[in-house]
TrEMBL record, chains A, B:
Highest taxon listed in the record's lineage: Eukaryota
InterPro entries for this protein: Seed_Dev/Stress_Resp_Reg, TGA_domain
GO molecular function, one term: sequence-specific DNA binding
Name of the molecule in the record: DOG1 domain-containing protein
Gene Ontology BP terms: DNA-templated transcription
Domain DOG1, chain residue ranges per copy: 11-266
Length: 283, 283
């Protein structure tokens, strides 16, 4: 990384794929917002859009899988991410269980909003809204559908949570095992007997190629779990809720990226360096 | 990371600290090698050197702790690492259990070496060496002490292994929980209600500051576990074994860094770009 301005063809491919994905997220974010603000909230149109969004995630995972087959290391701390994002990574992406955490966060914040409205106005109609979520559209910005989750939906989400954490743990253990393998034969032992540090070695090259291939397999498994978790949540939710949830996920991803850059820019400016910073906000 | 050539004061401090650490590792590597190749193998001198090496790891961890207090994100996928190294990271460093894996690897490879010597020469004296490790210095490059591990030592190493994995798991769970918190209030909910993606927000800034502080605490805990594991291994081993083990650890760390750069350089050259590559080997 001493010369990060030069990147290999494969890294450029990986980065282009990421940039396309981020542009697509911005586009779908706008579409989801429009579809939700449409008073009619036509379920068929929403369902189509949700299917498209999920399908695109699947395509993105397939492309990552293709690009990581030989060179997977880049995906475990991509240079195109901010360091904040990289500190949040789990096997090359977000934790699948954080999707569920987001469902709960949206549900909780909406109930809180309604409760606050009731306490402020002391209007018995608002209490009914708090308890049963009978009306929609009373709060600006959408997302209100998420406090309408039924007991059955919450039960299913909880079931999914337990299953997801279990699957995550399995992949975490496999990841640990692959990482530890590099402290074993042949890599550690070859390193010990080499007179010159970093001298090229066929056995080591082969072992590192295998390591990157195994890590690519793990990345594909993690993406599969992310996709399954996302699909299952969307299936549990109503179309309006699913659209609110997908919108929240996209906004969260894009915001963390932007806030991470803003923090890096602030530190740079505090050090007396840096650019104009105009590219940071509102991307 | 769009403009990685500019880095903040704190990142420069962190990187300088890492560069100093790597230079120190190279220096101690040479000293350990010299001390081990000295036929007298004076235990007192070895003990002093081992104490120094462990003390320096402690100092390095203290400096990282100091530098990560406000800005810890950089440590979870440092820009000064190769992407290979970053794909092997566990909470800002190597897995403590990989130290133990290295003990086993060195022990296994030495026994194998001795067995091969016996099979090649069919000399009954060599068999005695295989079984009891009675002689030293017969194999070039050191490390032979590692096959002399007694049953008691192996028992203690195994006990340490179980305890280390347990502690690692606890920290892994805490790390997962801190990562997931960013998909909750206030960050996720604020992201949802912002009209402009990445617009500065006091509550989010405060939450991200807290997040980085908590992650810094986790990094300190992980460094503490790395240090405890290292110290316990060294206490279980004889001075010669401990010096062989520390030498193997340093060589592995430096080699992975150099091999990672070599692989990045190869990919760059395969893409038709890159530098002379002269800086890669033999650093």
């Amino acid at each position: 990384m001493e010369n990060p301005s030069s990147s290999s063809t494969i890294e450029k491919l990986q980065q282009d794929c990421y940039n396309e994905w981020m542009s697509l997220q911005a586009k779908r974010m706008t579409e989801l917002k429009q579809a939700l603000s449409n008073d009619e909230k036509e379920d068929d149109k929403l369902r189509d859009l949700i299917r498209t969004v999920i399908g695109e995630f699947k395509d993105y995972a397939a492309k990552r899988c293709e690009h990581s087959r030989r060179y997977s290391s880049n995906y475990f701390a991509p240079t195109w991410n901010t360091c904040l994002e990289n500190s949040l990574l789990w096997i090359g992406g977000c934790r699948p269980s954080s999707f569920i955490r987001l469902v709960y966060a949206m549900c909780g914040s909406q109930t809180e909003l309604r409760l606050n409205t009731f306490l402020r106005t002391n209007n018995i109609d608002d209490l009914s809204t708090v308890l049963h979520g009978e009306t929609r559209g009373g709060i600006d910005g959408g997302g209100e559908s998420m406090s309408d989750l039924t007991a059955e939906q919450l039960y299913k989400i909880n079931e999914l949570h337990l299953k997801t954490v279990e699957e995550e743990n399995k992949l975490t253990i496999r990841s640990a095992s692959l990482q530890e393998d590099t402290a074993d034969m042949p890599i550690a032992v070859t390193a010990f007997y080499k007179e010159v540090i970093g001298e090229a070695d066929v056995a080591v090259e082969r072992a590192l190629d295998k390591h990157e291939k195994d890590m690519a397999g793990l990345l594909a498994e993690a993406d599969k779990l992310r996709l399954t978790t996302l699909t299952t949540i969307v299936d549990i939710l109503t179309p309006v809720q699913a659209a609110d949830f997908l919108l929240a996920g996209k906004k969260l991803h894009m915001s963390i990226h932007a806030w991470g850059r803003l923090r890096e820019q602030s530190r740079l400016e505090a050090s007396g360096g840096g650019n104009s910073g105009g590219e940071v906000a509102g991307e």
